Amino acid sequence: MSSASRRSPRRLLGVLVATAAAFTFFSPATAAGAADTGAAAAPAAAERSAAQPLSTSTPVVFVHGYTGSASNWITAMSVFRANGWSSSNLFAYEYNSYGNNITNAQGLASYVNTVKARTGADKVAIVNHSMGGLVSQYYLKVLGGNTSVSHLASIAGANHGTTYAGACLIYTTCQQMYPGSSFISQISSGDETPGSTKYATWYSACDGIIIPYTSTRLDGATNNNVLCQTHLGYLTDTVVLGQIARFVAS
User: Fold this and answer.
1) Which residues contact 240 (CB under 8 A, 6 or more apart)?
2) What's the average model confidence in pLDDT over 70-90?
3) Residue in 151, 207, 215, 237 annotated catalytic
């Protein structure tokens, strides 16, 4: 048994929260890098908006990361409202960070259906952060949720796992989040971006929590390399969040 597994859940949670909080204090001003295609993300979005009208009627479902909550998305929702969204089309899905991401993905499926019924929309957009990437990918790929999702934006998503999860392996979600897990294999084998959904990711070498930081990238997505941003810093980064709003509206 590893030393991590012998630690108490309370001590482990304290270590994780303290470490994550430390990254926010050392978050530098963000400079968004170019997408992997070589085009700058913000100018490209501006060119699209000039060429065609943007749609802000699509409901957006935000999916938090490990130990997160709906409160993580306060700044993001403000940015989306500034980009034309109504508050009635912005939703935050909450799930059990210590349970099972299969159950969490099933809950996301039910939540999306509820949002569609409430708004009358055929599809929603999903914006996720960190472990929310695993929940979202399982929903879209394994549960067939891509037919209900127009856009998927993954912010520092643990899409191929992170070795940082080794600090909390007493929880099923962290076991699933560790690179090489059967859960990771299931969502990354074959087509990582199924269906007609538009996929994009934002990742940075300064992340500090997603290790390796390139884990966020998805084959078939527009992968945006942010010059330097910390893992939690994204949640208040209005530059990146603005890019994501424009992506979802495209």
Assistant:
1) 30, 32, 155, 202, 226, 229, 234
2) 98
3) 207
